[in-house]
Automatic annotation (TrEMBL):
Annotated family: Belongs to the bacterial solute-binding protein 1 family.
Keywords: Signal
Protein name, per record: ABC transporter substrate-binding protein
Signal sequence range: 1-35
Compartments reported by the entry: Periplasm
Domain of life, source organism: Bacteria
InterPro entries linked: Bact_solute-bd_prot1, SBP
Keyword Ribosomal protein: no
SUPFAM superfamilies documented for this protein: Periplasmic binding protein-like II (SSF53850)
C-alpha cells in the first residue's frame, strides 16, 4: 500500500506543479502580450540649458506614462543642441534614429533637407492635434513652418532679455527700476556702472554680451535693432555684408575696444550668469531661459527688461522645437504626436515656463491660474512674452550649422581684434553664398 500512496501523492504534486506552471506561463504570456501592446519611443533631449532640467523631464515623462500606459517614452539626454542634432542625424543615417527629439528651431531646414523629419500635419489625427499649430505665438511659428507644413512644435522657446543689478544701479545714481532703452543709453549706463580699482583694473564691467556658444544669436539682436535681417525668409540668401550688419558689429566691438565698458575678447556664454551673480558685470544679455536660474542664485535685486532699440526694438526668438523623426513606425509617430500634444497643453506650457524661465509658448498658457499667480508674484516673467511683439525668427538657413559657423568665425575674429568688421563680414558672406548656392 505504501508505494501506491506515495504514487498518488506524487501524482497530486505533479498535477499541482503543472497547474502552477500553467498559471505562471499564462501570467508570463499575458505580461509579454501587454508589453507587446505598448509603443516605445526614444526621445532625444538637449541638456545644455539652465537648471535641473533632466529631473523635470523625467517627472513629466513619468506623469505622461501614468496617464498613457500604452506608451513608453525613453528620454535620452544627448548633450548640447549641437550635439543633439549631430547625434540624431548620425543615428538617422545609420538607420537607428530616435522617434522624437527636441532640437533647435533653426535646424528645421537642415532636417527637412536630410529627409529626417515628418510634418506634424501628416500625422495629426484628432481635432486637438490638427489644431495644435494654431495654438502658439506666431513669432515662434515663424521658424517652425515651411512650404505650407508644420515641421516643429514649439516647446522650450525664448528671446534674449536684459538683466541688470539694481544695487549697482543705485550705487551709480541710476533708476534701478528702469534699464537703458537705446544703444546710446547702454553706452552711457555702461560708463557709469564700470568700476576700476586704484590701479585702474576693472572690477566690474558695465555691460556683458556673451560671444561664445551662440554668438550669431546675440549678434542678431543687434542687427534686428538696426532693422536688418541676417538672411532671407526661405533660408537661401545671406545678408552678412549689408552696411547695417557691419554697423551693428562695429557697435558691439566698440563697447570693449573704444568705450572700455565691456570685457575684451570672447566672453563665455555659460559663465555669463555667474559673472552677473558675482558682481563682475552690472548688465548682461542672455536667454530668458536663464530667468529661473538667475532668480534662484542672484544675491541681489535685479531688473529684467526688453533689449534696447536703435532703429527699432528687437530680439530673435530662440530655443527648441519638438520634431518627429521619419524612420519611426506609424504607431511610434502616433505615440510621439500624443506625447507632444500632452506636453504642450496650456497648463503644461505654463508650468514649464514657471519651472525653467522659458517663454510659455501659447497665449492661453498665460491665462491659466498658475501663470497668472506667477506673473503677479514675479512680473519680470512677462518681459520675454511682451517682447515677442518686436521679435523676429532666429537666423535659419539650409545647412544652418555651416552657415552660422561662418558668421560666428567672423564675429569672433572682429571681437578679438584680428579682423575689421567689413572685410570679416564680406568673407563670411562669400562663404555662406557658396554653401547656399545649390539651394537658390
Amino acid at each position: 500500500m505504501m508505494p501506491r500512496i506515495l504514487t498518488q501523492t506524487a501524482r497530486a504534486a505533479l498535477a499541482g506543479a503543472a497547474t502552477i506552471g500553467f498559471a505562471a506561463a499564462a501570467i508570463g504570456f499575458a505580461t509579454a502580450a501587454h508589453a507587446a501592446d505598448k509603443t516605445s519611443i526614444d526621445f532625444y533631449y538637449p541638456v545644455a540649458v539652465g537648471g535641473p532640467i533632466t529631473k523635470l523631464i523625467d517627472d513629466y515623462v513619468a506623469r505622461f506614462e501614468a496617464e498613457n500606459p500604452a506608451i513608453d517614452v525613453n528620454p535620452i539626454y544627448a548633450g548640447s543642441y549641437q550635439d543633439t542634432v549631430t547625434k540624431a542625424l548620425t543615428a538617422f543615417k545609420g538607420g537607428d534614429a530616435p522617434e522624437l527629439a527636441v532640437m533647435l528651431s533653426t535646424d528645421m531646414y537642415t532636417l527637412i533637407d536630410e529627409g529626417a523629419i515628418v510634418p506634424f500635419d501628416d500625422i495629426a489625427t484628432t481635432p486637438e492635434q490638427k489644431a495644435l499649430p494654431d495654438a502658439f505665438y506666431p513669432a515662434f511659428m515663424a521658424n517652425s513652418q515651411a512650404g505650407g507644413k508644420t515641421w516643429g512644435i514649439p516647446f522650450q522657446r525664448s528671446t534674449i532679455v536684459a538683466f541688470w543689478n539694481k544695487d549697482a544701479f543705485r550705487e551709480a545714481g541710476l533708476d534701478p527700476e528702469k534699464g537703458p532703452d537705446s544703444w546710446a543709453e547702454y553706452v552711457d549706463y555702461g560708463h557709469k556702472l564700470t568700476k576700476r580699482d586704484d590701479a585702474g583694473n576693472v572690477t566690474r564691467w558695465g555691460v556683458q554680451i556673451p560671444s561664445s556658444g551662440f554668438p550669431y544669436w546675440l549678434f542678431q539682436a543687434l542687427t534686428t535693432q538696426n532693422d536688418i535681417e541676417l538672411a532671407s525668409d526661405d533660408g537661401t540668401v545671406p545678408h552678412f555684408d549689408d552696411p547695417k550688419v557691419i554697423e551693428a558689429l562695429s557697435f558691439w566691438r566698440s563697447l570693449s575696444a573704444d568705450e572700455k565698458i565691456h570685457a575684451p575678447g570672447i566672453v563665455e556664454w555659460g559663465t555669463t550668469p555667474r559673472d552677473f551673480f558675482e558682481g563682475k558685470a552690472a548688465m548682461i544679455w542672455t536667454t530668458t531661459g536663464n530667468l529661473t536660474n538667475i532668480r534662484k542664485n542672484a544675491p541681489f535685486d535685479f531688473g529684467v527688461g526688453m533689449l534696447p532699440a536703435k532703429a527699432r526694438r528687437g530680439s530673435p526668438t530662440g530655443g527648441g522645437n519638438f520634431y518627429v523623426l521619419s524612420q519611426a513606425t506609424d504607431a511610434q509617430k502616433q505615440a510621439a504626436m500624443t506625447f507632444v500634444t500632452w506636453m504642450t497643453t496650456p497648463e503644461r506650457a505654463a508650468q514649464w515656463g514657471i519651472d525653467t524661465g522659458y517663454v510659455a509658448v501659447r497665449p492661453d498658457a498665460w491665462q491659466t491660474p498658475a501663470m497668472q499667480a506667477y506673473v503677479k508674484d514675479f512680473p519680470p516673467a512677462a518681459v520675454a512674452r511682451d517682447q515677442l511683439e518686436h521679435s523676429v525668427a532666429e537666423l535659419s538657413t539650409h545647412e544652418n550649422q555651416r552657415v552660422t559657423q561662418t558668421l560666428n568665425n567672423a564675429l569672433q575674429a572682429v571681437l578679438t581684434g584680428t579682423k575689421e568688421p567689413a572685410p570679416a563680414l564680406a568673407e563670411a558672406q562669400s562663404e555662406a553664398q557658396r554653401i547656399l548656392r545649390s539651394y537658390r
